[in-house]
Specification:
15% strand; Alkaline Phosphatase, subunit A; 3 domains; 27% helix; four-stranded mixed β-sheet; ten-stranded mixed β-sheet; disordered N terminus
Length: 747
């Protein structure tokens, strides 16, 4: 028999999927149950004669009564030169085995003996044929599925094969190193089958995701998805970037996962969150201009399904804890109206971390902590990070491990106001800078919270099938204790310090761990990436700006992303005719007065007013305005409207190449013009005076689209309508005053 031929042996099962095992390694044929440390294990009974030891570990809660109902099978490799799915019948087993080596016959006989013994023991019958036993197992599977009302979860198998060549001496075959390497780790090729029987390649923790939601036999459960977003964490504000802020948990998780060192977000809150939730650039959702303010009648467009809505349709339990900041003018704009089964958190962009009082300017203040759609007055007085962590642990404790989970933890820290519990502030008592000391205490509290979440995942048995993503929503704000050194700029700017973020992925499902990834990744990429992990077909997602980057992160493959459009904000230019000077600077292709930013390959182009471009070293963080005199002030922005940098060679943006490389500038300006052709009109309505919390019991809450209930409520609103003119006039003066204050603060 040729050495390239391989034997074929199906050991247990009905699932129609299994492992391809080369002739140099014999599949496990005989197993028995054993309890070890509270976990069931399939262990070899007669396997010693095969010359190796193998285990299939099954988590508690996965029901595998005997081999014939096991979801895991093993069969041999190429079956006469072609790959075939395992055959559930005894006749098909014998026909393929006859073409193979004598070792296959021994495995077949041993497996048949054990299968018959196992089924006689369960059924209590004198003898049962393999085919009858298979049918019995299939009926049991179908009945169990009907009782549960949902697809069954299969065991997550871990198979370790160790080759011993003397076992194959009877067959006259020895393993070949080339063949062993070609067939995968340890000579084993993992594969799975679609419900239609077609074989597809297994990839990390994703090998089952499409079929699991439909209850297909043999499907691996989709992973639990945990997304943790932190507010205003600077690039230099994590331990593994050399910061003086202590973040041991984040450092450890990142070290055992994949650090994303070419990872980008948006420069301010709402844009980053909108692109995470929709996978679309701002120019395609109408949110090009700034954040969503509390009194704006504006929220995510309904024609863009959110990540939570997609995952909910895929069978996930979806929960959000923390900061929303994507609009709440109508009930349908709330998190519970956009795909989350539960929500505890704030709707606006910032607020007191203890009292949850949030103000829009100085004239409109109200309570902003909601449990679902009601104000959670009873929870006031708790520190936000600790409160949100407690709710996350409650969710994990109550969650059914058999159902996939999407948990979005959007912490309010380390956004202003700078507040932290005393026990975290005491760690930085030596820091003389008060804003930096409080900022550091807030991030240490975040670090502790992430550790509690991961520990709860482990304790509840969810960790081994989970993917945790950690991300900041934008760069740090130097005026508020943040630090992005050595990057240029900060929050609110399109310099690297405003858009390059702290981020990492931690998961047992990663193929590579403990590595640094320099693949280009943008926050909009999480939308298709997480949906792909959940088994949602990409053809159902429509047109997206994000890319599935899981292979780039997990396997080190090249990133499918080659460019990032950070934004095109047409409202940034003064109304009226274009300035001839800025048109000339854009070679007649683009008005460089328009605020825009594009990263393409190694090049980065900025136009318009892109924000303050200072570099702020950690030691220069001041205690007051006078301390800013010694900073690295740059004056090259005066009179300029276009910049070009080679980010690969100059990641700190110290050398502007717009004059030296006009050819590159032309190409990138043309690319901006192409993107602009696909943009939708900007949606930035004026503030609505009816949103004032004082008109709604002192609470920030939806003020449009609610049904009026009862005569008393109608009379109240009718009386308010008579005084609405005065109300609008007062709001107008408040708005003018607020805008003047913001303008003065800017200058």
């Amino acid at each position: 028999m040729s050495q390239r031929q391989s034997f074929c042996a199906t050991v247990a099962g009905e699932s129609g999927q299994g492992f391809d095992v080369d002739s140099s390694v014999v599949a496990v044929a005989v197993f028995g149950w054993r309890e070890q440390q509270g976990r069931k294990r399939l262990v070899p009974k007669l396997a010693p004669f095969l010359g190796f030891i193998s285990y299939i570990t099954v988590d508690e809660g996965s029901r595998i009564p005997h081999l014939d109902t096991a979801k895991t099978q093993m069969h041999a490799g190429e079956c006469g030169g072609r790959s075939e799915p395992p055959h559930p019948s005894r006749d098909g087993f014998r026909r393929r085995a006859a073409r193979q080596s004598p070792v296959c016959c021994a495995v077949r006989r041993t497996a048949g003996m054990w299968r018959g013994a196992a089924n006689r023991k369960q059924a209590g019958s004198p003898r049962a044929s393999p085919s009858a036993t298979s049918q019995l197992g299939a009926r049991e599977e179908r009945a169990a599925a009907e009782r549960q009302g949902s697809s069954r979860r299969t065991a997550v198998a871990e198979v370790a094969l160790q080759e011993v060549t003397h076992t194959h001496a009877r067959a006259g075959e020895r393993s070949s190193p080339d063949r062993q390497a070609a067939s995968g780790i340890g000579g084993v090729r993992l594969s799975k089958e679609n419900p239609d029987g077609s074989r597809i390649k297994a990839r990390d923790g994703r090998q089952a995701l499409n079929s699991s939601s439909s209850g297909a036999p043999g499907a691996t459960p989709p992973p639990h998805l945990i997304f943790i977003m932190v507010d205003d964490q600077g690039y230099n504000d994590v331990g593994y970037h050399g910061s003086a802020i202590h973040t041991p948990v984040l450092d450890r998780l990142a070290a055992k996962g994949v650090k994303l060192e070419n990872y980008y977000v948006q420069p301010i809150c709402s844009p980053s969150r909108s692109q995470l939730m929709t996978g679309r650039y701002q120019i395609h959702t109408g949110l090009q201009h700034s954040i969503i303010r509390p009194r704006q009648p504006l929220c995510l467009p309904r024609d863009s399904p959110t990540l939570a809505e997609r995952l909910q349709r895929a069978g996930y339990s979806t929960h959000m804890v923390g900061k929303w900041h994507l609009g709440f003018s109508r009930p349908r704009c709330l998190p519970t109206g956009r795909g989350f089964h539960s929500f505890l958190g704030s709707l606006t962009g910032s607020g007191d971390h203890y009292t949850f009082q949030s103000c829009d300017g100085a004239e409109a203040c109200g309570f902003d902590l909601h449990d679902g759609e009601r104000p959670a007055w009873e929870l006031s007085g708790n520190y936000s990070t600790l409160l949100y962590t407690h709710r996350v642990r409650q969710i994990l404790r109550a969650h059914d491990p058999q159902k996939p989970l999407f948990l979005y933890l959007s912490l309010q820290a380390a956004h202003t106001p700078l507040q932290a519990p005393t026990r975290f502030l005491e760690r930085y008592s030596s820091l003389g800078n008060r804003p930096r000391r409080h900022y550091a205490g807030m991030l240490s509290c975040v670090d502790d919270a992430v550790g509690q979440v991961v520990e709860e995942l482990r304790h509840r048995g969810l960790y081994r099938n989970s993917v945790l993503v950690y991300s900041s929503d934008n760069g740090g704000q130097p005026l508020s204790g943040g630090c992005n050194w050595p990057l240029r700029g900060g929050k609110g700017t399109y310099w690297e310090g405003g858009v390059r973020a702290v981020g990492f992925v931690h998961s047992p499902l990663l193929k590579r761990k403990g590595v640094v990834s320099r693949a280009l990744v943008h926050i909009s990429d999480w939308y298709p990436t997480l949906l792909a992990l959940a088994g949602v077909p990409s053809r159902d997602l429509g047109r997206l700006d994000g890319h599935d980057v899981w292979e780039a992160i997990s396997e080190g493959s090249p990133s499918p992303r080659t460019e990032i459009l950070f934004n095109i904000d047409p409202t940034s230019r003064r109304p009226g005719e274009a300035n001839p000077r800025t048109l000339r600077a854009g070679f007649g292709i683009w008005d460089t007065a328009v605020r825009a930013c594009l990263r393409a390959g190694e090049w980065k182009l900025l136009t318009g007013n892109v924000g303050d471009g200072d570099w702020v070293p950690p030691q220069s963080l001041p205690g007051g305005p006078a301390g800013w005199e010694g900073l690295e002030k740059r004056r090259d922005q005066l009179g300029k409207s276009v910049w070009l940098f080679n980010i690969t060679a100059d990641p700190y943006e110290r050398r502007d190449l717009s004059k030296a490389r006009p050819d590159v500038v032309r190409v990138l300006l043309a690319r901006l013009a192409e993107y602009n052709q696909t943009a939708v009109p900007t949606r930035s309505p004026p503030d609505d005076p009816l949103a004032d919390p004082q008109l709604h019991g002192g609470v920030w809450t939806p003020w449009l689209g609610r049904r009026e209930r009862g005569a008393g409520e109608r009379a109240k609103r009718k009386g308010h309508a008579r005084t609405c003119k005065v109300c609008r006039l007062r709001a107008l003066f408040r708005k003018v005053r607020s805008r003047l204050q913001r303008a003065l603060a800017h200058f």
